[in-house]
Amino acid sequence: MSIVTLVSGGLDSTLVAYLAKEEGIQQYPIFIDYGQRSRDREHAACRSAMAKLQLPDLEVADLSGYGRLIKSGLTDPNQRVLEDAFTPGRNLLFLLVAAAYAFQRDADAISIGLLHEETSLFPDQTSAFLQEAEAMIARSMGREIKVLAPLSSFHKQEVIELATLKGIEGTYSCHLGGETPCGACIACNEFKAEGV
């Protein structure tokens, strides 16, 4: 089996790549530049993590124009990073790009680091969304490409514990992109909510 792994440099996607590597699954990591404010730090953390895992060269999909067109707290410094965080179509864009890349690499599946549905804040973080995206991908690609969410039974605390156990460090998860995490965005709040 081979997969295209969506990686962002954050804890969740890095753990997904680590677990696939541990299982001996051939993977092709891809980083999506969708014009996010935290792009530079995410990309640096991602490159470092993939190098540590000795995975094939990290591919970067430069879709930065998306963030200029679709403004949200994640892409536009004039919007609120927490209250305006929803970026319409973002996860669908990620899955479509990963699936097209999987098609070209003849990979069997794509993998995304979504957590337990109880933690979802947006409609594109649910199991129903993933099932429907998988069906749409099969129709648009003309063949089945599985959509995997290996952490879908995990809450953040469980991800943190497993990542710590595996020795994963140096990830980056703040949506503002500063040297020090802002403590206010959704990604930072996930860690605070778990008491980390």
CATH architecture: 3-Layer(aba) Sandwich
Backbone CA Rg: 16 Å
Portion of residues within helices: 40-55%
Structural class: alpha/beta
CATH class designation: Alpha Beta
Report the strand count.
Answer: 5
Mean pLDDT: 95
> How many domains is the backbone divided into?
1
Low-confidence stretches: none
GO molecular function, one term: ligase activity
Keywords: ATP-binding, Ligase, Metal-binding, Nucleotide-binding, Queuosine biosynthesis, Zinc
EC number: 6.3.4.20
Family: Belongs to the QueC family.
Outline the secondary-structure elements.
Blueprint: E1 2-6, H1 11-22, E2 26-33, H2 39-52, E3 59-62, H3 65-69, H4 90-105, E4 109-111, H5 127-141, E5 146-148, H6 156-165, H7 186-193
Parallel strand pairs: 1-2, 1-4, 2-3, 4-5
What can you see in these coordinates?
The longest helix has 16 residues, at 90-105. The protein has helices at residues 11-22, 39-52, 65-69, 90-105, 127-141, 156-165, 186-193, and strands at residues 2-6, 26-33, 59-62, 109-111, 146-148. It has one domain (2-193): Rossmann fold, CATH 3.40.50.620. The radius of gyration is 16 Å and the shape is globular. By secondary structure, it is α/β, with parallel strands linked by helices. The model has no long low-confidence stretch (mean pLDDT 95). The chain has a 5-stranded parallel sheet with strand order 3-2-1-4-5, with helices on both faces. It comes from Bosea minatitlanensis. Keywords: ATP-binding, Ligase, Metal-binding, Nucleotide-binding, Queuosine biosynthesis, Zinc. Pathway: Purine metabolism; 7-cyano-7-deazaguanine biosynthesis.
